[in-house]
Write a sequence for this structure.
């Protein structure tokens, strides 16, 4: 018997049939996306999916419905439009250093910018333009050829974009402030799929949000100021961890005396017994004082003098190129599975030091490799006129604690110890945490000044009312 095609069209499809139709449309559209972009597209089960979804933090298991590895800003725009058409949320990501706090990506698109690493330096204007996938090393090296430095953090492998969107606190912070407040323009794809340029005169709300508020949309490139720092006096003083209390008290007193040209931190570091760790340090635990001093070696040596007189076991202070600052903190150069967290501290008085030493010092049973306290103040404390979502920091110190969780069963205990360190300093916590160091799921309101969190909600309502973009710390849209 011949069938009437018209009848088939008007019959209400069964549920299974509807799903098949939807899947075949999605497959066809995915093929169209593949064909339209220079980058790559991966779905679960496909070769390359696991590598494409892997974050730098190996403890994070992201399982998005699709991964797009964008090759260009045009690719990003195509991917955003595809996601919108298929009602998918979008998680923009570079390296995945900051993947730990993200909500689960089930049903979402992971939009990776790892292939977009072009960096252009304008030596006359003292600016850099970095594509969204660039890591700090990509900026530091070409900038140094012109005697210039960007506001990188402690690790040269961290992405410029994620770091800057969350504030960006590095070795020149007390003199030049947060990296976010040195951004002069952002190119981004809005949640609606339009490629726009945001700066002081265009898309000013987006420009504000990008500078420390985690951003709204998918950044394709950032432009930023560079500073004339070719070399500086910097290094580490290593003390056996048994001297932690004495060293931290002395450092705390010293921080009250230093000018903005000095950015420093104290670091309780437990080094693994691995062959790649140099012999005198291998398998040992230290209290380390690290500092970067702008200026010449004579001035630097004078400034460091009081710390040096404590008699360190090892002293690496010297004039170094600004491009070598990434070595000071000994951050892991390769991806690791890890748990970490931090907190802004309103102050770090003697009682706080004693509390920290009790929980992470020589007598503590701890799986944490690294517990550091950074000195803030200086330029960080002064509101930047026309600055972004973190115009200044109302805290004097910054805590960060972390440990490797080499097997999944270690993640819980390491996380518990990280939390114990944070809790030990609770009496001195500032009113909100640092965006970039809050590695547990936390709303933007927990990591931004209250006025900034409110403005971000309003901007979110205007540009992303459906909450398409998944950002490190979620923002729920509200009308003013
Ligand atoms: C070893 C180490 C050292 C660190 N040192 C410092 C430090 O000294 N100072 C400091 O401030 N922080 C530091 N951090 C924290 C770091 O800045 C954050 O983890 C930051 O989020 C990493 O950015 P990323 O681009 O590398 O990571 P990603 O995980 O790729 O990005 C983090 C988040 O940024 C957003 N994002 C990234 N790319 C885009 C884009 N193209 N468009 C829109 N949104 C985007 C997304 O919300 C994303 O989830 C350090 C982290 C590690 C692991």
């Amino acid at each position: 018997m011949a069938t009437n095609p018209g009848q088939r069209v008007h019959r209400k499809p069964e549920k299974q049939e509807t799903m098949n139709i939807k899947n075949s449309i999605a497959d066809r559209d995915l093929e169209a996306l593949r064909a339209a972009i220079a980058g790559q597209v991966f779905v679960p089960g496909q070769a390359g999916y696991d590598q494409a979804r892997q974050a730098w933090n190996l403890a994070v298991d992201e399982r998005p419905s699709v991964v797009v590895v964008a090759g260009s800003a045009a690719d990003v725009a195509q991917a955003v439009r595809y996601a919108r058409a298929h009602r998918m949320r979008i998680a923009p990501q570079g390296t995945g250093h900051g993947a730990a706090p993200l909500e689960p990506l089930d049903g979402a698109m992971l939009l990776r910018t790892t292939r977009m690493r072009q960096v252009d330096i304008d030596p006359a204007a003292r600016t850099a333009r970095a594509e969204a996938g660039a890591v700090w090393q990509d900026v530091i090296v070409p900038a140094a050829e012109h005697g210039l430095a960007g506001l990188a953090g402690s690790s040269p492998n961290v992405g410029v974009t994620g770091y800057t969107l969350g504030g960006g606190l590095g070795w020149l912070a007390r003199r030049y402030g947060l990296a976010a407040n040195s951004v002069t323009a952002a190119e981004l794809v809005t949640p609606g799929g339009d490629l726009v340029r945001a700066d002081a005169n265009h898309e000013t709300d987006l420009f504000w949000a990008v500078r420390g508020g985690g951003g709204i949309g998918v950044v394709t490139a950032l432009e930023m100021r560079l500073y004339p720092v070719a070399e500086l006096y910097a290094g580490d003083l290593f003390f056996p961890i048994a001297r932690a209390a004495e060293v931290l008290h002395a450092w705390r007193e010293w921080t009250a005396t230093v000018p903005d040209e000095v950015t420093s931190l104290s670091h309780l570091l437990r080094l693994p017994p691995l062959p790649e760790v140099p012999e005198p340090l291998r398998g040992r635990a230290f209290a380390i004082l690290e500092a970067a001093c702008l200026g010449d070696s004579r001035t630097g040596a004078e400034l460091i003098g009081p710390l040096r007189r404590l008699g360190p076991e090892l002293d690496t202070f010297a004039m170094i190129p600004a491009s070598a600052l990434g070595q000071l903190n000994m951050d892991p150069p390769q991806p690791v599975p890890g748990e970490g967290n931090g907190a802004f501290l309103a102050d770090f008085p003697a009682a706080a030091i004693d509390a920290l030493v009790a929980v992470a010092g020589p007598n503590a049973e701890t799986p944490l490799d690294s517990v550091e306290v950074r000195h803030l103040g200086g330029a960080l404390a002064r509101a930047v006129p026309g600055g972004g979502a973190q115009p200044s920091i109302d805290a004097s110190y910054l805590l960060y604690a972390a440990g490797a969780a080499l097997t999944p069963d270690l993640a819980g205990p390491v996380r518990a110890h990280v939390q114990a360190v944070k809790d030990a300093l609770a009496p001195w916590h500032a009113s909100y945490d640092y965006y970039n160091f809050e590695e547990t799921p936390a709303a933007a309101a927990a990591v931004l000044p209250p006025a900034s969190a409110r403005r971000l909600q309003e901007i979110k309502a205007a540009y992303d009312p459906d909450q398409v973009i998944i950002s490190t710390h979620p923002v729920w849209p509200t009308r003013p």
